[in-house]
Amino acid sequence: MPTTPTVHFEAASTLAVVVSSNEPLLFLSDDLKIIAASASFCRAFEIDPASVPGRLLSELGQGEWGMPKLQSLLMATASGSVKVQAYEIELKRSGQTPRQLVVNAQTLDDGDVDRIRLLVAVTDVTDARAETRLKDNLIRDKAILLQEVQHRVANSLQIIASVLMQSARRVQSDEARGHLHNAHHRVMSIAALQRQLSTSPGGIVELRAYFK
Fold it and tell me: What is this structure's pTM?
């Protein structure tokens, strides 16, 4: 039974999978000529799907995909020397904000043993990185604010303790002096607890010792 139709069928199946993929994909020959691109890739990077097949990767768009480092890595992958995993690039296009991309590439058996094919997956992580930076900034700002609040609380407790001690020295009544000393002791316990809490983020603090 002839084998040629089977080979063609496998190649057509591969093209169909690539073109319909929800993930931005490029299907390349070993000389980095584009055999197919997924519709999701063309949408993501605003490329006319009809203009893609048969063009070199470096000719895609306005030439922004012709980055020398990316080209050399893909050529090395085609030769079997390396495998591109999570390689990060910055895609710069005229009049548009640069995009942070993560590229993964591997050789693919397309049923044609005489030809090497590359499957390249491109993930746009620009928004995810921006969200991560925003989250990190919010966490840092929250930590700074919390530190400032803790500092002010400590100062306020110190002032209250000083006022209580001064009042205890001036008062004539032993009973009143005792109440003031007791209040001073409690304020100092709260201050000690506050210091412990400020140096033990997320930890467990034993309260019993502070309220004896």
Answer: 0.64
